[in-house]
Design goal:
Length: 403
């Protein structure tokens, strides 16, 4: 059964339009008459979405990715009926909950307890349902000690923890999620991710928007790429993310070439770098993105630099899918000068012994003397395969023997 039918939907906004009262509407009408008399150009119309169509089946997890302004948040606002389409039709089924603006219904002068009931009502819960879930909400948010304190005295972390807990305990058939898995500290972020996995595994239909491509690849079963308000790609998350990365990479190369060909060379503090290629390989030389935690990894990188860089240093970071920095190492003093033009290097990593999970490799250029980062070369995802525990068993996978 289709939980969402998004049929040829378009949404336009008039740039510069502002009408929040009758007086402003009358003033805007007067400006329109004046523009016609003086020949001034009418305000430009911006199409946030342009003839977008997709369906979401019951129990499916759909990820939506794209650059800023691509139309991702507009899509969620249309689905949650915060705004309405200029053209096209949207049909949804079942109870809907939205993890978009956390705590939007909180009142600062009310206590946490009172706000749980207020926000739960806004999200569509009946009082009996809130009563039934109240203890779980408070326990999940780790707010037992402060639940009867006015929320205006909460820290920002406490505020969003309680808001997420309320929203995630709505028994919804359809859940809309927009960049909310980065709330609170690292331990609570892992807790949020585990809760989202629990909702997914229970059969909840989820639409998930995030700039964290690794979260999309690990959490979603299908993905859509939006570019300038249109669907540019749709399919398996890994395939769609690869298309997005290639498009971003081509755009970076073009910006690099325009800068080098059309302007004077930049100073070392602002080195433009264009990534051409990063590849992970097994020890036999075959490319792969999946490795055992106990398996060596070979990395090959090709990139371009606009001019010679002295006192240079390669810096490599390995981050888990949730952004946790797991390892950092440098080239020390082996490569102090990097020539302008095409460059490449190989890096042989010994077994990482990290827990099975999704990771990303981040490459930077830095100055050896000052320690300042000069430029980011690029980043690339990979996976250490095995039984993933969502960070619940630490970072490393050590060897150990009991006696």
């Amino acid at each position: 059964m289709k939980m969402i039918e998004f049929n040829h939907v378009s949404k336009s906004y008039q740039l510069g339009a502002y009408r929040t009262s009758l007086r402003e509407a009358l003033a805007e009408s007067g400006r329109k008459i004046l523009r016609r008399q003086t020949g001034s150009r009418e305000k430009e119309v911006f199409w946030a979405l342009d003839d977008v169509s997709f369906d979401v089946e019951e129990g499916e997890v759909l990820g939506i990715i794209g650059h800023n302004g691509a139309g991702k948040s507009t899509t969620l606002k249309l689905l949650s009926k915060v705004t309405f389409p200029t053209s096209g039709q949207i049909h949804t089924r079942g109870r809907m909950a939205a993890l978009i603006e956390l705590g939007a219904g909180f009142h600062p002068d009310l206590t946490g307890r009172e706000n749980v009931y207020l926000n739960g009502s806004i999200l569509g819960l009946k009082r009996d349902e809130i009563n039934e879930s109240f203890d779980k909400i408070v326990e999940f948010a780790e707010m037992e000690q402060f639940i009867d304190t006015p929320v205006k005295r909460y820290s920002s972390g406490m505020y969003v923890r309680l808001a997420f807990s309320v929203a995630s305990h709505v028994r919804a058939d359809l859940l809309l999620v927009d960049e909310v898995l980065s709330v609170g500290d690292m331990s609570f972020q892992l807790k949020c991710l585990a809760k989202m996995n629990e909702l997914r595994d229970s059969g909840t239909t989820i639409v998930f928007i995030s700039h964290n491509l690794y979260s999309v690849s690990s959490f979603c079963r299908r993905a859509i790429l939006l570019q300038h308000g249109k669907v540019a790609a749709e399919g398996l998350p890994g395939d769609v993310i690869q298309i997005y990365r290639e498009e971003e990479r081509e755009r970076t190369v073009k910006m690099f070439e325009d800068k080098v060909n059309g302007h004077a060379k930049t100073q070392d503090e602002h080195v433009p770098v264009a990534l051409d290629h990063i590849e992970f390989m097994k020890t036999d030389g075959n490319p792969s993105k999946e490795f055992s935690p106990e398996e060596p990894i070979k990395i090959f990188c090709k990139y371009r630099c606009s001019h010679t860089v002295h006192d240079s240093l390669y810096v490599v970071q390995i981050r888990r899918a949730d952004g946790l920095l797991c390892a950092l190492f440098t080239s020390e003093d082996r490569y102090s000068t990097i020539a302008s033009g095409n460059n490449e290097f190989e890096l042989d990593l010994e077994p990482l012994h990290l827990q099975p999970d999704y990771y990303s490799l981040h490459l930077f250029l830095a100055n050896q003397k000052s320690g300042h980062f000069l430029a980011k070369i690029g980043e690339e995802p990979f996976q250490l395969i095995g039984n993933m525990k969502n960070g619940e068993e630490g970072v490393i996978l050590p060897k150990y023997h009991w006696r």
